UniProtKB/TrEMBL annotation:
Domain of life the protein comes from: Bacteria
Protein name: Probable sugar-binding periplasmic protein
The protein's role, per its UniProt record: Part of a binding-protein-dependent transport system for a sugar.
Species, as recorded: Kibdelosporangium aridum
Annotated SUPFAM superfamilies: Periplasmic binding protein-like II (SSF53850)
Keywords, sorted A to Z: Signal, Sugar transport, Transport
Pfam families referenced in this protein's UniProt entry, alphabetically: SBP_bac_1
InterPro entries: Bact_solute-bd_prot1, SBP
Chief localization: other
Length: 446
């Protein structure tokens, strides 16, 4: 099923990489760009992605629209390829021609190691104007000046709320501050006669569904790797402490054991039994793509969307949130990097292809022309994410070779924190800093 920040299967200190169909040699990792294929070239391009089911079919159709220009090039799209499978394909010497990743978390690592090729030579040769990409998209698809990926649609994480459940608690609009979120969560929660949770207003567990540290961080303005020397400094961050204090307040309200029993009975995030689809939770965070899932499997749920609530200390940040996106790149060692680039250029810059794919799977199109296209289907709920995308207030992950590792370390700490295994918040965050900074030193050889 679909992605989420958890989609990053952080099996990958090992690198999610891919290489050419049939060979690991050739193609290199930069330098002179590979020649474009001849118009009548006969070859097959293997593409790996994590898409499945309805989304896999839509992405396959988008990739195959490449045949309008190169009718003899076949596209072999292989969905449900996670980090482990992609890594194994590299190690076995038979990776794909094009790699699609749900997240940008590993990009710094791939660029730093050379696992993904720098596409700047292709961009310069073909005079591609990268200003057609919004700035936040340009930022999260490159690392240290290397364009190791292109955006293949974008994600913005917003706030979903069940209108009926909020109305029953006396609310007609979603919360705008984290203080209000705490109040709304308590009032929309329903307990059974035996004290068990029947409906949770908002689940504070992390990780859970789209609850991950990087998605919560913009609500408080918390930053990764924010120290003066570019290292982790969470122990010295008031914002991270506020975030974890908020989390614990709500866990304490529910009761840790009651919350765990309730969660154990909830459906998978990307199944029709998702708790929000079933009216078991009143509010949650998720990406814009959730609109398509709701339309597909829970069309009777009356719901609204809004930007995530923010700390009362930063009301001017309301309207923003967390942004990332699916990325696509040329793996190290492909045989025909010029052909790989032509496919990537087509699916990431062709307006009609992006708009049609966005309409199908409800990701945000990732060029300014596609965002303004009259053919883009926009309803009230989806418009929230378009507005957030253009707000200038979005926060993305830093470009770092240890980004994926840092996110895992923080999310692991969040789990221990609410489980009562980290009784001293300041000391726990200091340990997190030490772990992240150790990862950074090893990666950079310092």
């Amino acid at each position: 099923m679909r992605k989420a920040p958890m989609r990053v299967v952080l099996a990958s200190a090992a690198l999610l990489v891919a290489s050419c169909s049939g060979a690991a040699g050739g193609g290199g990792g930069g330098g002179e760009p590979g020649a474009a294929p001849a118009a009548d070239a006969n070859l097959t391009l293997v593409v790996y992605s994590k898409f499945t089911d309805r989304e896999e079919k839509a992405v396959t159709a988008a990739l195959q629209s490449f045949n309008k220009k190169f009718p003899n090039i076949k596209i072999d799209h292989r969905g449900n390829q996670d980090d482990d499978k992609l890594t194994q394909s590299i190690q076995s010497g038979s990776p794909p021609d094009v790699a699609i990743s749900f997240f940008s978390d590993n990009l710094g690592n791939w660029c730093h190691s050379g696992a993904f090729q720098d596409m700047n030579p292709y961009v310069q040769r073909d005079k591609v104007d990268l200003n057609v990409l919004p700035k936040q998209v340009r930022d999260y698809t490159e690392y240290n000046g290397k364009r190791c990926s292109m955006p293949f649609l974008a994600d913005v994480y917003g706030f979903y709320y069940n209108k009926d459940l909020l109305a029953q608690a006396g609310y007609t609009a979603p919360p705008k501050t984290t203080t209000e979120l705490l109040e709304y969560a308590k009032k929309t929660t329903k307990f059974a006669a035996d004290g068990s949770i029947e409906v949770a207003g908002f689940i504070p567990s992390m990780p859970f569904y789209a609850n991950e540290a990087q998605i919560w961080a913009p609500m408080w303005g918390a930053k990764y790797l924010s120290g003066p020397d570019g290292k982790s400094n969470m122990a010295g961050s008031a914002e991270w402490k506020e975030l974890f204090d908020f989390q614990k307040q709500l866990v304490d309200f529910y009761g840790r054991d009651k919350l765990e029993r309730f969660k154990a009975g909830l459906g998978d995030q990307y199944s029709p039994d998702n708790a929000f689809h079933k009216g078991k939770i009143a509010m949650m965070f998720d990406g814009e793509y959730r609109n398509a899932f709701l339309a597909d499997t829970a069309p009777d749920i009356k719901y609204g969307t809004a930007p995530p609530p923010v700390s009362p200390n930063r009301l001017d940040a309301y309207g923003g949130g967390y942004s990332t996106g699916t990325i696509i790149g040329i793996p190290k060692g492909v045989k025909n990097p010029g052909a790989s680039w032509e496919l990537i250029k087509h699916v990431t810059l062709d307006t009609d292809t992006l708009v049609e794919l966005s309409n199908q799977i409800k990701n945000l199109p990732s060029t300014t022309d596609s965002l303004k296209s009259p053919n883009l289907k926009v309803n009230e709920q989806f418009k929230t994410f378009l507005d957030m995308y253009g707000s200038g207030k979005l926060q993305s992950n830093p470009a770092s070779p240890v980004n994926a590792a840092a996110i895992k370390i923080v999310n692991d700490f969040a789990s221990r924190w609410i489980a009562g295994q980290e009784p001293d918040l300041a000391a726990g965050l200091a340990k997190v800093d030490a772990q992240i900074n150790d990862e950074l030193a090893q990666k950079l050889g310092k």
